[in-house]
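Re: your question from the hallway

Yes, I did run it. Sequences:
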Amino acid sequence: QLQLQESGPRLVKPSETLSLTCTVSGGSISSGSYFWGWIRQPPGKGLEWIASIYYSGSTYYNPSLKSRVTISVDRSKNQFSLRLNSVTAADTAVYYCARVRMVNATEDFDHWGQGTLVTVSS
Amino acid sequence: DIQMTQSPSSLSASVGDRLTITCRASQSISTYLNWYRQKPGKAPKLLIYASSSLQSGVPPRFSGSGSGTDFTLTISSLQPEDFATYYCQQSHSSPFTFGPGTTVDLK
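Structure:
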């Protein structure tokens, strides 16, 4: 059974870099049928897609965050990671990692991690 | 970016009720529309993909329809675990965008 688990600091200071890792178990991150992505949700608000990556390293980003975000993959560890720099209080959110399934030219988030709340505060 | 709207934003219902939630896209997205259910404190769960395809393991009381700009999610008989927030999401073009959510609570 596929599982995703986010890890990383829960508290980040303003202007610093938020770094999270998603560890995938029960399946290979190198499977050709999937991308891997990050989505966030500020407390009490809706969902925002951040970025996605293919095992080969191909990436695509939400333009609203692209200048501050890097997504990367480590196939040897079956992990992918998110870095968001120059954070502000507006980046406080639950961050989810998810598998992006590609089916008949459409894409969906079919497996999610449990999410981790990252707070930006001094 | 493609903007997604949902209606209603919230509704009250009882177990056994039939529910319909509407999602509208700011431009045509064909059938590139997914639905998720999110219980409080939990990650979203995929219910419907490609507008009308039921995700594996999801009960058949959930159904989806629509194409172009207008879509609906229907729950034929509301169960206790369905009191939650529902989100639509378009996968027609990047950036993927979600609707603002529809919260279903107990009447």
